[in-house]
Design brief:
The chain contains 6 helices and 8 strands. It is α+β, with helices and mostly antiparallel strands. It has one domain: Maf protein, CATH 3.90.950.10. Strands 1, 2, 3, 4, 5, 6, 7 and 8 form an 8-stranded mixed sheet that branches. The two termini are 16 Å apart.
């Protein structure tokens, strides 16, 4: 975790939590799955909304070379257009060691600019099958999540979470989204597509980054 601009004034609802028990947070995404996951992790202390409530905002080009760079781009862009609003953004993805940590920052568009989750999983499975058809225990991988908190166009703090595990060549389960049906976290035999949402949320890269955000808010408020 890194924080900057420590003298930057946070909004009144953060500085005086006794006045407003439920804090307001805008997530710089239009991905309903991601927003729902974050809202579930922060409930009931936070009211979480996202960019679907602001259709006038145009999503910036995510051309950063790292997860953190992309998270900062999204958070700063949205917060610049929404003065005084605390904005949280994340950029996350899957890294597979044998593929030199691909898909990485291209996880959401691995099979092309308009790829669906299924398209991306299919490409990943094909590439792994070409490399090796029989890998006991699957291929080492991790989910990573970088988060940035911004206000008025400036990043206040960044956080990083990850969960180690492996990917398998056959999908299991229909839960979650993205690459979840292919990823088995360390210590488990089922994929994120099978594991209950409560278990996934307690283990996930996003929940670990969010925990750092919550702890930071408790100090900085």
């Amino acid at each position: 975790m890194r924080a900057g601009n420590r003298d930057l004034q946070l909004p009144a609802f953060v500085l005086t939590p006794m006045v407003m028990i439920c804090r307001q947070l805008l997530v710089a995404t239009s991905n309903s799955h991601k927003t729902a996951e974050i809202a579930a992790m922060l409930a009931p202390s936070w009211t979480v909304s996202d960019l679907r409530a602001h259709p006038e905002l145009v999503s910036p080009e995510e051309d950063g070379a790292t997860f953190e760079a992309n998270a900062r781009i999204k958070a700063e862009t949205a917060s610049l257009r929404l003065p005084g609003v605390l904005v949280l953004s994340d950029d996350s993805g899957l890294e597979v060691d044998v593929l030199l940590r691909a898909p990485g920052v291209h996880s959401a568009r691995y099979a092309g600019p308009k790829a669906t989750d299924k398209d991306n999983r299919d490409r990943l499975k094909c590439e792994l099958a070409i490399i090796d058809h029989d890998v006991p225990g699957g291929w080492r991988a991790r989910f990573r999540c970088a988060m940035a908190v911004a206000m008025d166009g400036k990043t206040i703090a960044t956080f990083d979470g990850r969960v180690e595990g492996h990917v398998i060549g056959t999908e299991q389960g229909v839960g979650g989204f993205g690459y979840d049906p292919l990823f088995v976290p360390d210590g488990y035999v089922d994929t994120f597509g099978v594991l209950p949402e409560s278990v996934k949320n307690s283990l996930s890269h996003r929940s670990r980054a969010l925990a750092q955000f919550v702890n930071w808010m408790a100090v900085e408020r």
